# Entry
Amino acid sequence: MWLIAKLKNSMDYINRFRFSSNRWWSISKFLALSVCCCLLVISCGGAPTKEQGSSPSSGTADSGRLVVGTILKPRTLDPADAYELSASNILNSLCDRLYTYKADSPELVPQLATELPQVSEDGLTYTIPVREGVVFHDGTSFNAEAMAFSLNRFVQNGGKPSSLLVDVVDSVEASGEYELTIKLKNAFAPFPSLLAFSGMCAVSPEAYEIGGGKFQPKQFVGTGPYKLTEFNANSIKLDVFADYWGEKPPNQGLNFQILTSSPNLFNSFTTGAVDIAYQTFDPDQILSLKDKAASAGWQVIEAPSNNISYMVLNTKLTPFDQLEARQAIAALIDRKLINERVLRSQAKPAYSLIPNGFEFSEPTFQTAYGDGDITKVKELLAKAGFTTEKPLTFEIWYPSGSATREQVASTLREYAAKELEGLVEIQPQTVDASSYWKQLSQGVYQSALVDWYPDFSDPDNFIHPLVSCTKGSEANGCEAGASQSQGSFYYSDRMNELIEQQRTEQDTAARKKIFAEIQTLLARDVPLIPLWQPKEYAFAKQELENVKLDPILQLRLWEVKKGT
# Structure
């Protein structure tokens, strides 16, 4: 899933940004020398670096283009292999899928399909009519055969996200020139939502091929409102696609500027070098930008996200092989304290792994444990045999470079020391991100702090990828499957049964009851502790119109207007 890849797109993994030299050759020698002199003076004086310099959109030719600053650097734009948040941000502007989401809503709406699928009575066959009159960026005509090619390529090329369809889809074929038929191996209730995943793009059969590992990381040829015209280490350029079948964007194109760190992103926005700044700022930077917005004349765009931050407890390692020890930590967590002290009130407390924006979400951890219930903590610790002479001692691990997780771990350590007077001793530990994810799945850590970004908008995607298990036992824990890879090693026969039931259940009311039991069971067994659900922030120049943050599609850049 996106868990590993997204953190690998943090500032530690982004190469140094530099402006394209082509912009400087258009300036006269005299001005070039003047600029160079100015840069030398500024550099000596400690002012912003070249990354934070003049806007790349300041030229007249680019005055109608949007310049978007970010520190997320995509590894690839091939939808069959792209599995990072950085790539989805770009692909959502470049490509069309069969389905997308209505603005500010988890409601599916047709995109390249013309209506929602017809589903057979057994839930195994999906018949989908697709649009006529659509062309790819290379001029190739789109039809059901092209869509079948795209989905089959997604499966057969074996890219990072291919497992999303490999375990679900039996066959994809064109049953007519503009009709697609998909047969599933097993009934899967959220399948239409899966078809809205950013990687399920239609791609031109003339530009791509099917075959294991046959990817095109530096190109994209789809049917979306923009086409890719430049992709290099520090910038990505998208031009409006003149032959787009739908409504044309109200801007003249997109320039993504890849910066090396959140301080550089902060300075690039405040100095006017970018029109929109998005992903990622730390909480103090967000607070500063919000405080200055009115006087500086820029927009603050805030929206709830579908992301969940949580704590993993390794059920196979001491002390968390004891149920009462896990329950004691669940009672110890004070989400309001974390939100105020660390997150600067830029999140919502999470009491379920399923975000509260879903009707299926039940705050079972709030009901069972509350926040910072010290009396309950002491009762559970006493039941488990812990005393001040024999305290519950454990490590909390997090990837280096994550200032937020570092502060969360430190806050929990200080809070436990103050409130429990030696009953609990917490030891924060950090390691480089690549080692962190490898060792998490190997069961090295007693506990860890983790973020989860969903692949598609369905509650299944917050449960199955985190706590299901394909091989194991309640005596030995999970030996293979999601809970092993996520570091909890949790195994429950009942949990596995419930997960499979909700994945095949077509009736919404029945699914909701199943998810209610799943969430109650998680609160009882505590393999994971939900902590917070962050808010998303973007900042934009005042003159931009219709800048929106979508909890699923991120920035809807194809709707943003910029005056010339």
